[in-house]
Amino acid sequence: MNLDPVMDGLKSAGQSLEVTATHWTWFLLGGALLVTVGVIVEAIALANEIREEKRSRVGDVVEEPPRHWLFPTHPPLWPKHRLLEVIGAVLVAVGVSGELYSEYRRGLVETKLRTNNADIQAELTGRANRATASAVASAQKVCGLDALVKQTGSRVDVLSNAASDQKARSDAVIAALKREQSEVMATIKSAQKDEIELRAAADTIRDLREQLRELTTDRALSDSQIAAMVKATRAFGKIPFDMIMARDSDDPGLTKQIGLALRNSAHWDWKPRNTLDAVYLPGGLPGVGSTAVAKGVEIDICPDDFQTLSPAVNALFEELLPALAPAPVSRNLLNEKQQQDFFHCGLVHIFVGPKL
Fold first, then answer.
1. What angle do CA 330, 335, 262 make, to 5 degrees?
2. pTM value surpassing 0.85
3. Which end of the chain has fewer CB atoms surrounding its CB within 10 Å, N or C?
4. Pick from 287, 311, 307, 282: which is nearest to 299 by CA?
5. Predicted pLDDT of residue 283
6. How large is the angle between the packed helices 5-56 and 145-216, nearest 10 degrees?
7. Pick from 265, 271, 236, 276: nearest CA to 350
8. Which residues touch 145 (CB under 8 Å, ≥6 apart)?
């Protein structure tokens, strides 16, 4: 039988609010777990990206990602590691959103819990006051004031102790919730720090791989770059030139590209190098000189030929500079010793040396 519906209702409401606060704490922990799982998924995506890129290389040719068997003309399928990156980002976003929402809802529950405790204390205090007033009035009527006051005081003490106990219990629950909140926030900050460090490491790996690709990829002009070079140099007529190259891995191919484009399309006059160190490329091409000094591509002329040949040299230089970047491209004037010992005036000397 319910003898005190008001107090029973307030106590029941307090217990329900404590359970609700505990539930939102578990939701907060679940959000932190989602953030952690998201970070792990992104780490797996990064590892798959590196592994798939290594597998996709056959020589210097990069294999195209597979296409859907029903739609072979559609663009290639999205790589698996990209999908994992999206899934990881979604998990992190959902986890952080869940943590924020859980924290907001738990704050509302704590506010209601404090309000409920205040109502309990107010009800107990009001009852004590009413009991005291009633006891005093009764004692005055029956002249048993002293005994009634003592009895009422004892009852007031009991009610006050009950209110104090309830307040202590509420304070303990709130303190425990705050400790759990601090632990969850520390976990979130640690996961976010790990994510930042992981992303920084991924960026460093990508930069190193790009530098390695530039060092190990042979220099070559594309069709559009050759067309632009021909267009820029054709207007100067039959400019005499010769080719000198180092014997690096990609020098012969680049030398042949530049020489054939200038001779066949820009109609320049490719002069052979008939020295003892001359190299003869396949296809019956003119002899090519040999050098171990020049770096990148270097275009040289004699000082006496500056007025007649520098416009053509500048046009060629302006096209090769962006096409071969980051490998160096330069233009120079030959000194007197070079003119006397190695090179003739009246023509453009094009050196193709190592890229670095």
1. 45
2. no
3. N
4. 311
5. 85
6. 10
7. 271
8. 136, 139
CB 310 within 8 A of CB 301: yes
How many angstroms separate the CA atoms of 293 and 300, rounded? 13
Q: Residues 158-175: pLDDT tens digits?
A: 877 887 888 888 888 888
Query: Could you tell me if 28 and 99 are in contact, meaning their C-beta atoms sit under 8 angstroms apart?
Result: yes
Residue 72 has pLDDT above 80, yes or no: no
For residue 144, give the 3-state DSSP assignment.
coil
Pure H helices in the chain: 5-56, 80-142, 145-216, 223-233, 251-260, 306-324, 336-341
Buried b / exposed e over 148-186, threshold 16 CB at 10 Å, is beeebeeebeebeeebeebeeebeebbeebeebbeebee
Chain center to CA of 56: 22
- Mean predicted lDDT score pLDDT of the chain: 80
Give the count of beta carbons closer than 10 Å to the beta carbon of residue 271: 17
User: Distance (Å, rounded) from C-alpha 64 to C-alpha 328?
Assistant: 31
